Amino acid sequence: MDVLSDVITVARTGRPRSAHVRWHAPWGQQFASVPGSAGFQVILEGHCWLLSPHAEPVQLNAGDVLFLPHGSGHTLADSPATAVTTPVCSPNDAGLLGPYTSDSVDRLGRGGPATVVLCGSYSLDPSRTHPLLLTLPALIHLPADRVRHPELHAAVRLLATEVGTPRLGTGATVPALLDTLLMYILRIWLAEQPARDNGSWAAALNDPAVTAALHAIHQDPARPWTVAKLAAEAGLSRATLARRFTAMVGQPPLSYLTWWRLTTAARLLQTTEAPLRSIAVRVGYTSEFAFANAFKRAHGLAPGAYRRRS
After folding, report:
1. Residue 104: which pLDDT band, with cuts at 50, 70 and 90?
2. How many Å apart are CA 116 and CA 104, to the nearest integer?
3. Residue 26: cis peptide before it, omega within 30 degrees of 0
4. Mean pLDDT across the chain
């Protein structure tokens, strides 16, 4: 698997929630701040405004995509002048946002121009959140552009159709489409970041040498990697790789290797019944004792206790 695929695979926990919502002007909806989650809003029809007490209002049009990787609170409304009085919407409130809510209508029943929004959230496991997600801004706004981003537009339309008209198989289709939507959002945002920004994950994933080292770690975490072996994969000297990798990724190659091994182990403990010895070997530890000690240092619990809690 490539690095970006792994970011999504290890980060999300549980089932995502999504809703296809129609509001009639005048309307306003506040969305709660939910640490440990990531949210999105897609404007399907009409237009609205993104309101924040710390920034100027931003007009959103049909096809615009918002991604909030840290679960930041925000408000949408038909106009900056609209007073928001409706209850705060939170993904933890199943009464407001079911797993796949279809065509909810504003409760006031007003008959003004309609705005249709596809909204939702992912729950993230704080112990497995990839550092790439931690470095993202609080809000990513991708304006509608069917020519430059046809794949994002296609994913939005497919997801809107499934959530707007649930049918047989929707329960399996929606989570896959949500992961696809997240992948396209991250891919587009990373590709649009300045190449000169050398101290970021965007630069790392646009740097062939650093990407080669990251890919080697993700593809085979059990291999006894050294900086020299990773440098050979990257086609650089050891010193050059160590310097470039650390500047872009935020930690040295072998520190990241350890983090990825133990993050992978945590996912395997939660999602499989594999014996601890087997998991230890799969992530590069020849001794179950050494694996248990390293895991406890990283996650605060022994592997068995972590599995039972999960």
Report:
1. low
2. 10
3. yes
4. 87
Calpha distance 202→204 (Å, rounded): 5
Angle subtended at Cα 149 by Cα 147 and Cα 153, rounded to the nearest 5 degrees? 100
The pLDDT of residue 216 is 96
Say how many CA atoms lie within 13 Å of 302 toward its Cβ: 6
**What 3-state class would DSSP assign to 36?**
coil
d(CA 45, CA 115): 5
User: How far is the C-alpha of 71 from the C-alpha of 277, rounded, in Å?
Assistant: 36
Q: What is the pLDDT of residues 26-78, one digit of tens each?
A: 999 999 888 888 889 999 999 999 998 778 999 999 999 999 999 899 999 99
25 within 8 A of 75, measured Cβ to Cβ: no
What count of residues does the chain have?
310
- Calpha distance 226→284 (Å, rounded): 12
- Among 288, 289, 282, which residue's Cα sits nearest to residue 264? 282
Determine the Cα–Cα distance for residues 48 and 57; give it in Å rounded to an integer: 10
Contacts of 170 (CB under 8 A, 6+ apart): 100, 162, 163
- State which H helix or E strand residue 227 sits in: helix 227-234
For the beta sheet containing 74-77, the strands, ordered from the edge strand earlier in sequence to the opposite edge, are 28-31, 74-77, 47-52, 55-61
Burial class, 19, CB count within 10 angstroms (exposed 0-12 / middle 13-18 / buried 19+):
buried
Half-sphere exposure of 274 (CA within 13 A, CB side): 18
Q: Where are the beta strands (DSSP E) in 6-113?
A: 12-24, 28-31, 37-45, 47-52, 55-61, 65-68, 74-77, 100-105
Alpha-helix residue ranges (DSSP H) falling in 60-207: 131-134, 150-164, 170-191, 201-205
> Which residues are bridge partners to 124 per DSSP?
12
The reported pTM is 0.83
Tokens of 105: 């209508």
| Cα Rg of the chain (Å, integer) | 22
Instruction: Check if the beta carbon of residue 152 is closer than 8 Å to that of residue 188.
Output: yes
